[in-house]
Amino acid sequence: MRSLRDACGADGVVTDSGSLRTYESDGLTQYAATPAAVAIPDTAEGVQAVVRACHQEGVPWVARGAGTGLSGGALPVADGVLIVLARLRRVLEVDLANRCLVVEPGVTNVDVGRAAGDGHLYPPDPSSQIVCSIGGNVAENSGGPRCFKYGFTTNYVIGLEVVLPDGELVRLGGKEVDSPGYDLIGVIVGSEGTLGVVTKVWLRIVPAPEETVTMVGFFGSVAEAGDVVSEIVASGTVPAAIELMDKLTIEATEEVAHAGYPQDAGAALIVELDGPREECDHKGAGVHEAMKRGGAAEVWRAADAAERDRIWKARKAAFAAMGRISPSYYVQDGVVPRTRLAEILARIGSLGEDAGLRVANVFHAGDGNLHPLICFDPERPGEAERAEELAGMILEVCIESGGSITGEHGVGVDKKAHMPLMFDEPDLDAFHRVRCAFDPAGLANPGKVMPTPRLCGEVPGPARRHPLERDGVIERI
Amino acid sequence: MSPAPAIPELAPESYDEAAEMLRDTPSGAGVRFRGGGTKLGWGQPVRDVDRELSTTRLDTVLEHNEGDFTVIVQAGVRLADLQAALRSKGQRLALDPPIGEGSEATIGGIAACADAGPLRHRYGSPRELILGSAVALSNGAVARSGGKVIKNVAGYDLGKLYAGSFGTLGLILELALRLHPLPPRTVTVLGRSADPDRIAAAARALADAPLEPEALDVRWIGGEGAVLVMLAGDAAEALATRARSLLDDAGLEAETADDGDAPWATQRAGQRSAEGAVAKVSATATRLPDVLRAAERHGAAVVGRAAHGVSWMKLGPRSDAELVESVASLRRELAPSPCAVLDAPEAIRERIDAFGLEAAPERALMSSVKNRLDPLDGCNPGLFGEAL
User: Fold this and answer.
1) How many Å apart are CA A84 and CA A64, to the nearest integer?
2) Which residue blocks in A270-340 are alpha helix, DSSP H?
3) For the segment A22-69, what is each residue's pLDDT rounded down to a tens digit?
4) Which one, A5, A139, B347, B353, has the greatest CB density within 10 A?
5) What is the Cα–Cα distance from B337 to B344, expressed in whole angstroms?
């Protein structure tokens, strides 16, 4: 405890039980655990001192950004230390000439975007971007609506400063890309805090698009809208975002967002194109036509920023609006091949009926990333359990179709039991070996990602030949 | 001395067979991996080679999910063959590295060496296109990671670790890859100048412009330089006009290239050398004038990805001693920008730290990854030198 105070200052360590409770969950509140202490360092050296102290004492720790994660990735370990990165929130460098930003992990996603200025764009835009931190984005490899065209966090991180679980501070990459050797950045991004704590991030930015075209089409059914998605993509158009909302979502959001979406629509398809003016004009006309041809009863095209905001308002209100139609809901995050969207949504619908639960669908249609919202009433006996069971069945459907158990929320604690659906023992063993390379003592965010706890064995020393042996001077007998 | 005995070449037909061959390598000996054989001269010579494992027979395109823009290929599929098959469907793998005179380069080899060409500007390196992987590890396991959908965060993203690992962690058997639509047309614009600062300024203007070019390259040879930009899409001509005026404004002599691919073939060729050596410099974009001036001093030709700051310097034929000296002084002059030596004669590669990893601070962590995945150091041992 004293080393924590030395590292973070007296006001940077929380130990009273009332305050500790604030940190017992992340965005997924059904899991809770109280840590022994919360450390809130304000420098990389402070983080390093905390991790080193944990290493020396054999105490497990969990790093936490803004705590918006939806898979329990930042769930504390009971009796462990929770390292909160909220005070590392400086933008250290804006290097527009090299299209690079250097920031601390506590900077919010939206502030990273602001730092890029008007002429440049930091593309990943998870929906919690106003509060979520870039450190958390790195840990989860966050996406967002724009990632269909632009890619994910991992495509923009070019350098990291990381405190390894033994307390060593290493710098990987930086403004200079393609540095020789293993792409350790590629492994750390998306590793959910199990390989170390990021204390500095180098991000690539791109020129801001000069034009944005936003449209929404209203269809009779999700299947109809899904076919239009496939047609748009097959034509060679790569929209910045393609979002789909079903009937239940449209109804729920209207009460909150008042976007004026027609309430008899079975599906709303939002397509946003961005890029060079000439290209947007051409492709915009094509998308409009595809929507009409695909049976859209109405297509709106935003004439200005206010109209664009109105179109997006409904989509962005979706999760919050669910609270109005259901006492509680569970957000699932699964991925299917885009071409099988319609078929899989129908299956999810009938699974929901069988379970006697309503399922609202709002999702990133371009990349097949589904977010079924399973509505349930925790007061009714058995309903929460049925919701959980349904959520699991939906993941099985995703895997059967060739998809994934998580597109952007991560495995965390919530999905670790589903990992064997996707990966066999040799695959999990390879993950485990990589984890052991970074964290042989198993102190960094233990109990996450991997389905079962495992220990790291000793590594036999490399059986390299002695140079004399190699040259034939001596011989091994 | 008697001539070295021929190294047996094994060409497994299945993943399990490949993994068993790898596992059955005698302790203390190494396996050298081979795809199309176009980049065997990269890195330090692999030592203690007991056998060579080739992906020749693992050459099937397993799935082309046209509507999903994804493909699953075995490692031995040649890039040229894959592109030909995709082209007929209006699609492509957005990866255009040099592929050798006989188009031998395979997907597995390209990924293992993280090689890329001009399309890197917009679409990234192999790491950006790999969705999933299957790899044979030296314990005889076939380990998969990722998946076949374009969005997936389940488990560690080991495809990125294998890309650029030069086969030192295991043998890539299969990759799931993201595809992109073939643009309906492209137009290439080129601007020339003999002033490195003007070249750099023009490159920056284009890198910051919202034209979404497919490629943005520079070249420098014998005191003359050029900036090349490839515009694509239905509005390619209009975008090319805008690119040309940006080049004009930067004081370059701009023109539209007649034959679309010819200038880019030249760029790709500039990344390889049959004689002498190639130094791959990872600098920041703003250091481009330094890179061009250093090249001029060393009599080297340069091609590079202007916005990313990655350049290839072709050092022409010179004596071994001169080559070693050129590399050492380039590294000094361009420090701290990393400088990897590719395509050098074997005698040179034995003498130098080809990847410059020996002084890298993250070397211990890399060694740790290597030791966990390949504890007996059987996979391409020594390719990264003594560093790992």
Assistant:
1) 5
2) 277-293, 305-316, 318-325
3) 999 999 988 999 999 999 999 999 999 999 999 999 999 999 999 999
4) A139
5) 20
Residue at A464: amino acid letter: R
State the DSSP string of B236-285.
HHHHHHHHHHHHHHTT-EEEE-SSSSHHHHHHHHTT--SSSEEEEEE--G
Question: Could you give the ipTM of this predicted complex?
Answer: 0.97
Map tokens 């909150």 to a residue: A256
Specify whether the CB–CB gap between A13 and A37 falls below 8 A: yes
Helix or strand or coil: residue A347?
A: helix
Closest CA to B355 of B189, B166, B213: B166
pLDDT in tens, B98-121: 999 999 999 999 999 999 999 999
User: For the segment A96-127, what is each residue's pLDDT rounded down to a tens digit?
Assistant: 999 999 999 999 999 999 999 999 999 999 98
Residue scoring higher pLDDT (A100 or B48) = A100
Query: Which pLDDT belongs to residue A413?
Result: 95
The residues pairing with A133 across neighbouring beta strands, listed in sequence order, are A108
Residue of A187, A192, A163, A318 lying closest to A254 (CA atoms): A318
Residues of B in Cβ contact (< 8 Å) with A437? 365, 368-369, 371-373
User: Are the CB atoms for A335 and B149 separated by under 8 Å?
Assistant: yes
Task: Tally the C-alpha atoms within 13 A of residue A428's C-alpha that lie toward its C-beta.
Answer: 18
Rg (CA), chain B: 21
Regarding pTM above 0.90, the answer is yes
Chain A residues in contact with B368 by the CB 8 A cut-off are: 437-438
Name the closest residue on chain B to residue A476, using Cα atoms.
B28
Q: Could you list the beta-strand ranges (E) of chain B.
A: 9-10, 30-34, 49-54, 61-65, 70-74, 91-92, 130-136, 142-146, 171-178, 180-181, 186-193, 215-221, 224-232, 253-256, 277-282, 300-305, 310-315, 339-342
Q: How far apart, in whole angstroms, are the C-alpha atoms of residue B304 and residue B291?
A: 10
Interface test with B, best of A178, A281, A289 (most B CBs within 10 A): A178
